[in-house]
Amino acid sequence: MELSEALENYLKEIYELELMKGYARVSDLIFSFNVSPGTISKALEKMEKLGLIERNSKRIKLTPEGKKLAERLIRAHRLSERLLTDILGLDWIRAHQLAHRLEHIWPEDVIDKMDQVLGKPLTCPHGHPIPGREVKITGIKLSEAENGKTYKVVMIIREDEWILSMADELDIKPGNEIKIIKKNENDFIVEINNQIRTIPKALAEEVLINE
């Protein structure tokens, strides 16, 4: 099924919203893409006619076919990020930006080959599971951590560019250990890789950790 890039992006966002809260709403999509209600309404009507979504009581959910397409796009995106960071050495932001373009053009056989070359990674560089992998993500937000304890970074929750850029700069990456030295009202003093760092509370809300 050939879809426009915009429709594919809406499918991906609905998929992510379903994972987070079980469904999506029109207001979620308007906020995420900064577009008019009319634009979203037309897109949803088209996706509904194509059998990709179902709408009930203002809630939007993917059909099995819609979920299949969304997972293919997300798999392509996250493997592209792995290729660009692990093999080519690009930073998170550049890799994330390029992956948004590449996810729409990779043929299925190329995605499978990329997966093999990369050694079938479980997650993207930010810790999000690659569809098709049996990965259970658990933990608490960094903002909920306790003073004096040491944790391991599991995932960067939202992949907004400001979040990825700041996390990359502060070396907050999945697998890294982070020790909570002091929690202040608006920021946290932590130790990462023997370096003392100050993490804004807004960023701490976007980092998943576990013990």
UniProtKB/TrEMBL annotation:
PROSITE patterns per record: HTH_DTXR
Annotated HTH dtxR-type domain residues: 3-63
Alphabetical list of PANTHER family matching this protein: IRON (METAL) DEPENDENT REPRESSOR, DTXR FAMILY, IRON-DEPENDENT TRANSCRIPTIONAL REGULATOR
UniProt KW Transcription keyword: yes
Alphabetically ordered keywords of this record: DNA-binding, Iron, Transcription, Transcription regulation
Pfam families, A to Z: Fe_dep_repr_C, Fe_dep_repress, FeoA
Subcellular location: Cytoplasm
Source species of the chain: Sulfurisphaera javensis
CDD domains attached to this UniProt entry: HTH_ARSR
Assigned GO CC terms: cytoplasm
Name assigned to this protein: Metal-dependent transcriptional regulator
GO molecular function: DNA binding; DNA-binding transcription factor activity; protein dimerization activity; transition metal ion binding
Keyword Transcription: yes
Assembly description: Homodimer.
InterPro entries: ArsR-like_HTH (IPR011991), DtxR_MntR_Metal-Reg (IPR050536), Fe-transptr_FeoA-like (IPR007167), Fe_dep_repressor (IPR001367), Fe_dep_repressor_sf (IPR036421), FeoA_core_dom (IPR038157), HTH_DTXR (IPR022687), Iron_dep_repressor (IPR022689)
Family label: Belongs to the DtxR/MntR family.
